[in-house]
Amino acid sequence: MIPDEQVEEVRARADIVDVISEFVALKKAGREYKANCPFHEERTPSFYVAPDKGFYKCFGCGKSGDVFSFLMERQGLDFVEAVRYVAARSGVELRETRRRPEEDDPNRPLYEINAFAREWFRGCLLDEAGGAGARAYLERRGVSPEIAERFGLGWAPDEWRAFREAAAKHGLDEELMLELGLLGRSERSPEAYDRFRGRVIFPIESLAGRVIAFGGRVIAERKDAPKYLNSPESPIYHKGLELYGLSWARHAIRREGVALVVEGYMDAVSLAAHGLEHVVAPLGTALTPEQAGLLTRFTTRVVLLFDSDPAGLKATFRAADVLLEAGLHPAVATLPEGEDPDTIVRTQGPDALARFVDQAVDVMDRKLRILEERNHFASIEHTRAALDRLLPTIRAAADPALRDIYVKKVSDRTGVRRETIEAELERDTPRRGGPPAATRRAAGPGMGAIGGAGGYPTTMPRLPRAGAERKLLVVMVRGVEWVERAAELVSPEDFADPHHRAIFEALLDDPDLRAPTSTMDPATARRFEDILADPEEISHGIDVFTRSVNRLRVLALDRRVQELQRRIEAAAHDEEKLDLTRQKAALARELRELDPTYWGSATRKPRTDHSHTEPNP
After folding, report:
1. d(CA 488, CA 392)
2. Rounded to the nearest 10 degrees, what angle do helices 363-373 and 310-325 cross at?
3. Number of domains in the chain
4. How many C-beta atoms lie closer than 10 Å to residue 534's C-beta?
5. Are residues 211 and 277 in the same domain?
6. Is 594 in the same domain as 471?
C-alpha cells in the first residue's frame, strides 16, 4: 500500500503535461495545451490539459481526470502502478507499507489453491513418463516448451483422484476446491473426484496475473467428454469479466496499437507461439461489454479472427456490435473456408495470418459485402430486410463520427434517405438516453436495460415467466431483426425453461430458422412448432419485445438475489456476510429500477391475480 500522504505528494509534484506528452502530441493553447483525443478518433482537437489544475478533459467524448486516471485509461495501469510511474518521473521516493493481517484479501485461500493447482498441473506435464502424451500433443500444435512455460500450461492425468490426494497432503480445503471446480461430486457418491482428467490445462489469469480459473482440453477426442471443460464461476472468477491472455498480451497490444480477438485458448496460445503476441480470447461465452471495456484500456482498434462459417460470422457480428458500444473500432478478418487462425499459422506461417489481419475490413463494410454477395439489394423486399440487419451495427456505434459514416454508407448502398435511417434508429432504439452499455449490462451478458430513460415505461403489464419466454420467441420468429435485438440484450442463461433456452440458442445460430432442427429433442421440437404456428397478431412488436425482455431480466436478477440470500445464510464469517449483503442490496436496487413493484425474493407479496399463473407448455 502507498500511504495517502505520499499519493498526494506525487500528485502535487507531477508535471501532467510532461507525462501526457509521452503519449499525446500536445500543443500550447494559451494557458492550456490541446491535442486530438487519445481516447477516440477525431479531426479537430477537443482534448485539453490544464497544468495549473493538474487536470485533463476531452470535450468530445467526455473523458477527464488527473495524471493517474490518464495513465489508467490510456496505458491500462492500475492505480498503484500509475502512482509508481508518476513518482519515478517526479523524483518522489515511495514508502510503501504492507497490509495488516486483518486487511488480507478474504479470497486469499482460493488464490492459494489455484496457485497450487497450476504448479501441480505443470509438474504433471513435465513428468518424463506421465506427461509425454500431452507434450507430444502440444508439439504437434506448434507450442514449444518455452511457450508452454510462459502460459503456464499443464496436464491433468486421466485419473479420478490424483489431484485430490496431492491437495489433501498439503491440507487444502476440499469444499473450497469443489467451489472452484477443481473437484466434483456426483449424486451417487459423496466422495469428491478430480474434475479435470486427461486434459491439457490452460490457467486463466486475472489482469493482475493471479490464477482465477482453468480451462482443459482433451488430447484424444472422446464421445463421452466435451472437448473443452472450464472452471465454473466462483467468488474470484466471472467469465464475462475476463479475457484469456490479456495479462500477457496487454503490453503487446499497446505496442501494436491493435488487439486480435480469437475464439479460444488454443488459438491464442498458437498465435503467441508464432510471434503474434497481441491476442486474447473470450472465455467460452459471447464477447461481453465488460470484456470490451477491458480492451479500451489498451487500444481503440480490434480485429476479430473468428471462423468464417455461418456460426462464426454470427459470433463475429455480435462481438463487433459490443465492441462498437464500448467506443472501439472493430474490423473483421476473413479467413478461408474451413480454416481458423491456429491452422493458418501452423501450416502457412505467421506472415500468412498477418496478411489476413492487414486485409481486415470494418464490420460495416463486411456486412455490406456479404449482403451484396447474397443479392440482398436486388429487390425492395430484400433491401428492407438488409436494412434491418444493418441497423443494429449503426445503433451500436458509440463514436458519433463513426456512426455518421455508417449512416452515410448504408444510405448510399440501400438508397434510403439518411433522414429516414436516423428516424428509424431513434424509433427502434429503446436504450437511447439510458445508462452506458457497461452499466446496463453490469449484471452480466444479456442484462442490458431497455426500459425507463429511453422513453419506454419502466413498469409494464407483467408477464409470467414462461409467458415472457414464449412471447419473446414468438416475436423473434416473426423477423430476423428481432433475433439480432434479442442477441444484444438477452443470454441463454436468462431462460429458466430448458426447451425455450434451446430454441433461443437455435435462433441465435440461425435467425432464419423456421422448422425444428434434427438435433432438437422431440419435446423442444414440439414446443418450437407450437411457437411457429402461434396465430396471434402482434401489432406493437417493440412493446411486446420490451415487456418480455424486461420480465426475463427481472426473473434472472431475482434468481441471483435468491442465490446470494442462500450464501448469506450459509456464510460462516461476518465479513463474508457483509460483502454478500452489499451485493444483494445492489442487485435489489437494480431490480427495483426495472420493476418498482419488486419486493424481494424473501418478502414478495403473494399474488392473487390468477391470470399470471404459469401456462401449460
Report:
1. 9
2. 150
3. 4
4. 14
5. no
6. yes
Half-sphere exposure of 517 (CA within 13 A, CB side): 13
> Are 414 and 439 contacting, i.e. CB atoms less than 8 angstroms apart?
no
Domain membership of residue 480 as a residue range: 450-617
Angstrom distance (rounded) from CA 340 to CA 561 = 40
- Closest by CA to 304, choosing from 244, 368, 356, is 356
pLDDT in tens, 235-291: 999 888 899 999 888 878 888 889 999 998 999 999 999 999 999 999 877 888 889
- Parallel, antiparallel or unpaired: strands 211-218 and 183-184: unpaired
Residue 460: predicted pLDDT: 35
Please report which confidence band the pLDDT of residue 546 belongs to, taking 50, 70 and 90 as the band edges.
Answer: confident
Q: Where are the alpha helices (DSSP H) in 106-199?
A: 108-126, 132-140, 145-150, 162-169, 174-180
Inside any domain, residue 428: no
As a whole number, mean pLDDT of residues 58-69 equals: 88
Rg, Å, the chain Cα set? 26
Euclidean distance between CA atoms 184 and 164, whole angstroms: 10
Q: Are residues 476 and 601 in the same domain?
A: yes
Distances (CA, A) of 259 to 38, 61, 75, 121, 246: 16, 22, 14, 29, 10
Tell me the torsion sign for CA atoms 185, 189, 194, 198: negative
Q: From CA 98, how far away is CA 106, in angstroms rounded?
A: 16
Long-range interactions of 408-413: CB distance < 8 A, separation 24+: 409/364, 409/365, 409/368, 410/364, 410/368, 413/368, 413/377
* Cell numbers standing for residue 453: 430513460
Cα–Cα distance measured from residue 478 to residue 474, given in angstroms and rounded to the nearest whole number: 7
Half-sphere exposure of 594 (CA within 13 A, CB side): 29
Amino acid at 518: S
pLDDT at 544 over 70: yes
* Angstrom distances, CA of residue 482 to CA of 100, 228, 285, 473, 542: 54, 31, 21, 9, 9
